[in-house]
Amino acid sequence: MKNIKAVIFDLDNTILDRSRTFRNFIMSFVESYFNHLGTTELLIQRIIDLDQDGYKDKTELFRELVEELPWKTKPELYELLEYYQTHYVRNAILMDQAKEVVQYLKTKYRIGLITNGRSIIQYGKIDRLGIRDEFEFILVSEEVGIKKPHPQIFEIAIDRLQVRPEECIYIGDHPKNDIEGAGKSGMKTIWMKVNQPWNPDLTITPVHEINRLEELLGLL
């Protein structure tokens, strides 16, 4: 791809396998709180569905779980939020070939990461995966006070890199937050197809669509 100087990634379901990470966390969560039940697969799936692929606020999610689930002893909301903060990051799993792809692209481009979320959780996952040093910069929405898809968070990255927007390519899984947001800042985009369906009302079209990160090796 011509004239590209920087490659910027999303985190969840792009670099981090968020689906597997959350499922592993919920399996340990259910084992801790629901060992009085004989079968728990339906319970696990219900929690995953309520989570909405990570886009539901965690206070809201755990408030719903307090009310809905068949607890032996109903916990307080703060207890579940503390459990999440402590245990979720321990289950972080990389997408297949993620580190290898990033390390290869570092030999050709400047590399960054932009992610929505709480700093303690997002940096916790990044450090658990041992990838913080792979990126020239990391922007977490809570830290900078701006969330994707607002173009300003992408513009901050452009300013840090001191390159033109069209010299950056952004890779992410969410059509609106990642592709629309980065595209409106002037970046080129690649859509990582994971769980989020394409929204036909969006005005930005990615230059490529991929299913696996290693496909980038033939594109960049």
In what order do the strands lie side by side in the largest sheet? 3-2-1-4-5-6
Low-pLDDT parts are: none
What structural category characterises the helix and strand content? alpha/beta
Number of helices: 9
Sheet with the most strands, sense and barrel status: 6 strands, parallel
The helical percent reads: 40-55%
Radius of gyration: 18 Å
Count of individual beta strands? 6
Q: What is the H/E order? A: EHHHHHEHEHHEHEE
Shape: elongated
| N-to-C CA distance | 6 Å
Average predicted local confidence, pLDDT: 96
Estimate what percentage of residues fall within beta strands.
Answer: 5-15%
Structure description:
- Helix 9 (175-184) links the parallel strand 4 and strand 5 (188-192).
- A 6-stranded parallel beta sheet has the order 3-2-1-4-5-6, with helices on both faces.
- It is built from 9 helices and 6 strands, in the order βαααααβαβααβαββ.
- The chain starts with 5 loop residues before the first strand and ends in a 10-residue tail after the last strand.
- Helix 1 packs across helix 2 (41-51).
- It is an alpha/beta fold and 220 residues long.
